[in-house]
Structure formats: structure tokens, C-alpha cells
Specification:
mainly beta; five-stranded mixed β-sheet; two-stranded antiparallel ribbon; globular
């Protein structure tokens, strides 16, 4: 099984999984919060229509985790600064 690095910790994933699928498989159903009210968000639509599952991938922010295929060694940051 391969691994991605999420917030500094290794996270295993199965070939063909998206970043969101790997996070959910590991028990993480929310990984960011809304700007107003700080409500938890994770995968909502699962098909790239909404923006609830945003993460930073290899230094590029605003990536929809449900659309990004997990690749060995990729670095994912789940908590972006939503105030910017």
C-alpha cells in the first residue's frame, strides 16, 4: 500500500483512490471549516461540483480533494487559512 503525507503524517491509500477517499477511509470525514461559523467540512458532493473538500496539494491551494488522485509521496495540507 502506498502513502501520502497529510498534515505531516503518513496516510496509506489504495491505488485509484482520490485524496478525499483516502482521508475518509482513514476516518477523517472533515478537514476544513467554513469562514463564517467555522463549521466542519469534508466531502459533500464527491464529484467536484462544490468546494467543501478543499486542500493544499504539494503547495498548491484550492484543490478539490475529491478530484485529485492520490500519488505516492504527495504532500497534502488540510487546513488552509480561510481568512485570506
Amino acid at each position: 500500500m502506498s502513502e501520502i503525507v497529510v498534515d505531516g503524517d503518513p496516510l496509506p491509500f489504495t491505488e485509484g483512490q482520490t485524496v478525499a477517499a483516502a482521508l475518509v477511509a482513514a476516518g477523517r470525514v472533515a478537514w476544513r471549516t467554513t469562514r463564517v461559523g467555522r463549521r466542519p467540512r469534508g466531502v459533500f458532493c464527491g464529484i467536484g461540483v462544490c468546494f467543501d473538500c478543499l486542500v493544499m496539494v504539494d503547495g498548491t491551494g484550492g484543490q478539490r480533494a475529491c478530484l485529485v488522485p492520490a500519488r505516492p509521496g504527495m504532500t497534502v495540507t488540510t487546513r488552509e487559512d480561510d481568512d485570506e
